[in-house]
Amino acid sequence: MKNIVRMIVCCLALFSLSSCKLFKSPAVTKIQDVKVVSITPDKSTINISFIVNNPNCYKLKLDQLEVELLNKDRHKVGTATLQKMVQIPKKSAMCLDFTVELETRPVVKMVSSLDQKVLFFITGKGHGKVLGIGKKFKFDKPYELDLKEELMSIIPKFSTNGQSLFKITKTTVEKIGIGETELHIHFIVLNPYGLTFNFKGFPAEIYISEKLAGTGNLKNQLIFNENIYSQDGVMAFKLNNLKTIWGAVKGAVKGEIRYTVKGKVLIDALGMQINQPYSYQDAIPANILELLLN
Fold first, then answer.
1. Considering only CA atoms, which of 70, 65, 78, 50 is closest in space to residue 124?
2. 230, part of any domain
3. Which range marks the domain in which residue 62 is found?
4. Residue 162 lies in a domain
5. How many Å apart are CA 128 and CA 60, to the nearest integer?
6. pLDDT tens digits, one per residue of 82-126
7. Total count of domains within the chain
8. What are the angstrom distances between the C-alpha of 199 and each of 154, 219, 224, 276, 281?
9. Are residue 95 and residue 213 in the same domain, yes or no?
């Protein structure tokens, strides 16, 4: 009887040892995709998709998987964890998705000025079971995330999440002449993402009562970096008096003189030269007599 028990124990031990040898570790074979879900001044959310392969002849139960996102210096910038067990059929692969939240400003600092890409290392460790036998595995793969599209949607449009980053503060008449009047439009540009860029020009036309009244541009260039959250600027316009006064008189009936500015913003940012149409509207809260006497 004792011999039979010993034989059974030995068989189980041999089976266990052979199973361990036959059980091949699962592996992350490919980073399928990394997408930017959202970018706000505080947080950026990205979705990471990668392929996990089960090389075994039995289904794999993946019960643990921790993902870390490292910057180019291999410092951790984000993490994600498998929320529930996943079963991968035998000799099959499955695409898994993870959502990672990052602080926006450190990510922006990582953007390359050569190609507007961010280099990440996607690393992690996991645990899976086949026939009740568990095994650990690790992975470490580089990935370049292209942020050009996201940056182009923020910088030249001066808006994010429906909020304008270009705000008019006041409009003043600086000079009155026989042929021309000089109008100054004062504004503030916000830089909540800590982007580095040079707002070098804004050639534009100004319309009053839907009629072309003059042309203008930035009075001075505005240079931003990660430490500059906002800057005040001025657009200077030369107005043709006849057109301007005629349009202003119409608007003054309602207690304000409405105007529209249409032009192109000229920006150097992260190795890109951006030339993007932009327009805005505002009003001068004065009648025409007060305007001329200012």
1. 65
2. yes
3. 24-148
4. yes
5. 6
6. 999 999 999 999 999 999 988 888 888 777 666 678 888 999 999
7. 2
8. 13, 11, 8, 12, 20
9. no
